[in-house]
Structures are given as C-alpha cells and as structure tokens.
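Because discrete structure vocabularies remain unfamiliar, we reproduce here a specimen of the format, pairing a chain with its fold in token form:
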Amino acid sequence: MSTPLEDYALLADLHTGPLVSREGSMDWLCFPRFDSPAVFCSILGDEDNGRWKLSAVDGEVVSRRYIPQTFVLETEWRTPTGRVRVTDFLPPSDAHADLVRRVECLEGTVQVEHDLRIRFDYGRVTPWIRRVELNPPGDQPHDHDDAAHPSRSGTEPHPVGTNQDLRQQDGQGHLERSFKSRTDAGSYKNFRGRVRHAAKKAAARRDVQHGLLAVAGPDALLLTGPQLKPYLVDHDGKSVPSRGEKAHGPGADIRVLEGLRRGHHGTFDLSAGERMDWVLTWCHSYDQLPVPAEPGLAQQATEEFWRDWASDVTFDGEYDEAISRSLLVLRALTHSETGGIVAAPTASLPEDFGGERNWDYRYTWLRDAALTIEVLVQHDHQDGALLWRDWLLRAVAADPDQLQIMYGIDGRRNLAEYELAHLSGYEASTPVRVGNGAVGQYQADVVGEVMIALATLREAGIKENDYSWGLQCNLIAFCEIHMDVPDNGIWEMRGEPHFFTHGRVMMWAAFNEGIRAVREHGLVGDVEHWTTLRDRLYDEIWEKGYNEELGIFTQTYDNTEVDASLLQLPHTGFIEPDHPAMLRTTARIEEDLQGDYGQVWRYRTLESGQSMDGLKGHEYPFVICTFWLVEQYARSGRLDEARELMRTTVGFSSDLGLLAEEYDVVAHRMAGNFPQAFSHLGLIRAADALREAGE
C-alpha cells in the first residue's frame, strides 16, 4: 500500500513543493520548479525511483506540526533511549534552491539514519556522485575538475524574472541582491521583495569543507553536512561490496552495476542538546556551485517570511486556523518570480485508486488561478493578485483566438502529455502521466472566471492600465468568436464536446463584467454590442440549459443530468441562490450526486464502459464540490445544514490542515493530486459564506 496522502506534508519555497511523509521520507521533489522533472519520485513508484529518508533508529513518530503560520515542519521521534526532533523546510528561493533537514536531540541519546537515492528525470537517471572539497583552508585556487569553490562564485549566476536586473556590486566584486525591507523602507514594495529579503538572509556563507555532488545532464545537486557513504544492494536487499565513491562516479563499471540499487546512507549518534544539519542544494550542472544555505539563519528567515505574509490578515471565527492554512497553501502554490499559480504541486496522483484517471496538475489553469485570486484579494492579499495579473498579460499575449485554458508557470504553451512507463504508479494507478493533453481543449467557462477575478481586483481599488483592460476586451472578443462552439466543460471531459450550462453562464458573466466595467468604472468598450450578446445568452440558457418539465438546470443542453458546477451559477450574478430554480437544482444534486457524509461527486459516472468524460472507472467525491454545496446552503438560508456539512468536510483535512482533490469516504483516504488549490479556495469561500450569513 502506498503511503496515504494525508501522511504527507508540503514544504514550500515559492518555486517548488516537495512532499515528506510522516516517517521522514522525501518521496516527491521537483527541482528547481514545480514543473521540473522530479529528482525524488518514489510516491509514483518505489524507493529506487528516488527518495531521501531521514528517521530515528528504532523510533516512532509521536508528533508533527508546522511551526505556526509557516511551512517549517517539525517531527518528533521517540526511541528507547531518547527523543529527537527533525525540522524540514525550504528557504524562499531566488537564484537556486535549498532543502534543509535539521536534527536535534531533545533528550537522552538517539541514532538517526539516512537513505538517499537521487534519481533525476522522474527516477529514470542515476547520476554520477562524487565527493568534492569546498572552501579548503586558505581558499586557494584549484584547477582540477574535482574541486568546487562556492566561496568564489556568485550565488545568483543569472538574473531571475522579467523585471530589471536586481543585482548590484557590493564594492568588492561580489554580487548582492537589491531589495527594500520593512526596516529601511517602512513596507515591502511588492511580494518579490519579501522573497528576496528572505532568500538573502538564508544564503549567508557557510564554513563547509566538503560535500557530495550529483550530476546528470543539466542538473546538479550538492549535499552538505555530515558525510553519507555510498552503498550497493541487489534485488534481494543484500549488500554488495563496492569500490566506495568510485562505484557512483565517473569510471564506474556499468557491467558490474547492472541490476544493482545504489544510494548513500549514514547513521549518526547524538546526545541531548546536540544538532546536525544537512542541506541539499540544486543548481545547473554547468554553473559554478552555489553557496548552500546556512541552516540556522535559513530557518529564521523562512519563519519570518511566512509569518510576515500571514500576519497581513486576521480572522475571528470557528475556521480561523483552516482559513489561515488554506491561504498559506494558495500562496505556496504561487511561483514568486513568474506569478503563475499551479493547481497542485504533484502529478498523476489518482482520482481512482488503481485506475487511469491520473493527471499532471503542475500548471497554471486560468480558471483555478482566477478563483484563487478572488479569495486572496478578498482576504487583503492584493500583492500576489497583481503578480498573477502580470503573468496573465504575458501568457495570453497573442491573437484572442489562441487563448488556452492552461499554461506553464512561466507562460509557455507546449504542455505535451506523455506517459512514464517505468513507474508503477501510486497504488498501482497507471498510466503515470506528465504534461496535460487537456491544454488543447476549449472550455467555455474560463473567460468568465478570469473576468470575475479581474473585476474583484478592480473593486478592491487596483487600477486598470491599457494592457490589463485591453486584455479583458480581447477575452470578451474570444467569447464572441466562440458563441456557437460546444466545449469540453469545467471538468475537462475527454469525450465529445457539448454545450455545458455552467460554461454558457460563465460566458454570460464575461460579457456582464465587461459591461459593468464600462458603466461603473468609466472604461471604454462597446457596451451596446456586449449587452446584445449577454442578453442573447441569458435567453438561450433559460431556453436550453433549464428543463421546464423537471424545473432544474441541466449539465448540458442535450441531457437531463445535473453537475456540481451548477452550484456556481449564483456566484456569477446570473441567478440568486434562493431562486426556486436554483433550489430545485440543488435538491436534484443532493439526490443524484451526494453520498456518505454529505460529500458531493462532480457528475455521475457509469458502472461499466466509458462515462461521458470518455474514461473508464469511477472517482471519489470532489472536495470543492462539497464546499460549493456548503456555500449554496449558507446563501439560501440553510445555515444549520451548511454548518454541519462544513464541519464534516473540514474534518477530512490532514493533521496539518491540508486537503487533496478528492476524498474516499469508504476507505477514509484522500485521493487525487495533493494539496489541491481548488479544495483550499473552496474551503475559504465556504467559510466566508457562513460568516456572512451569520452576521
């Protein structure tokens, strides 16, 4: 059985999002970005597909937690002879990436052990690994290839991001980052300033004498800290004599290594009060080695960064902690340089254990990002919203008809989907896919959600400029071009296109927000023409998307099914939550799509054969759909039911407050990619609806 998703913790540096299990195994890590090929991929295969396990010998985990309002993870182990705390985190990333693992003996004596297996390219590539000298006494130059001297190389070899070069000389020829801090400017100028402030504090020079350097293709990883030693084992787990470091580096005899498993291990004894630190640092293999983070300063900077961001908002209610953690997750899934917001930091975690519903979510969906921006702005986090708006302007800078539903986190368009046949899959769920074939779909709802999000920004006092308003006019033009085109729907159906009622209402919303922008904010647009198109859609939806005989809105114009996305119609302003048609539609959703513990499926799937989505198998209730039902209950006067369902669904969060895409109410397990932005933004919106209804 695979490690349950709820046993994983997310770490975050605003560039990537690794997962570490309760038992101390780092089973998923993509360096340096969310969408980079994984270097630890055992979550989708086995331990030889890459992992880094750090655990206490003969120990058991007695507690774990995030240091409040951070992604600094503390795990406490108890052994027969003592107690030890492991602290895992990533400092906010700027030029390179660091993963820090700290061990402190709290009581008695303990022994900790490491098992490190670096496998680049989703577990396919075993790198050369060799020991390198760092900062030798006197820091004398060395010309031989095995020497690395980070003390003589800049920690930021290339400027990052789309703005001006933010580096300056420090007067001694060294590159230093330029930023404004609260102490010298009263407030940070923008979100990037906070990140660079934390990254600079974490990157102080260290007195490190040696490290392990792993190289394969364009990637390199440098491990510093107490030294780990190489090992070889056969498929029966028996140790095989090796030639030390030479067995893992250049010149290794591949005939001898064939069929053997390779890694590095180490056991270390600590007494009360003693501490050991390890840092794994990524860089390009063709660059000079970077300076690894100094663990103590890096932890302090990381805690300060997250607390500073979280302190911008205060809460007062039953779900304060859940809202705070959810906002932190949404921020953690935002790339600090590009502004792209990923739907989740993982790929191919199944929606149906053992099935084929396995997708890569490490990209920026316009819909998901727009909904995320809405809740961030409503909770006074406009800085990230502006960063996303700038990302949007760059990503969709083209002919309106070339709009995609998703992009890479840097705005790239090619997200070709392919399968990784060498991976056995989480819970044997295959195929394991990376990339996403839905990138080429037309989904009619996307523009409406983006227009609503940009309207939220506008109403929060963020001024439009020629580019941002021009973008919105182009989006409206995209809707007009596609007025008579069926689509694949919000759930990315891989079957035949249809006219989905939710999508048509979102198109109505796009025109409506354009009209409001002109009438209420003085912007320039063809209101008369947009009004004609909006009103045409309104009449069409009531004629074709509403079934008079049943008295409900339907999933598509050509069927009588319901779909959980219909719960979102009131959010657009198209209809009130307590309208009789909406109440009847909600009742039908309860009848057809609500299961045990009140959890809600997206739509019905078939017992056998292919469902409307073009896939085989079932899926589990979709977390955001249940939160949408909570929101509908709260806004239509069913407060007691809303409160009960909210408590139940929030209760399915992990002990760290994280939510996956779906929840299996039979096995009481999370399913789908993890953690999921959709689920966390749904929680926030449901809590907001409950608070507003109770005021």
Remarks:
- The longest helix spans residues 501-521.
- Confidence is low (pLDDT under 50) at residues 140-189.
- The chain has 16 helices and 25 strands.
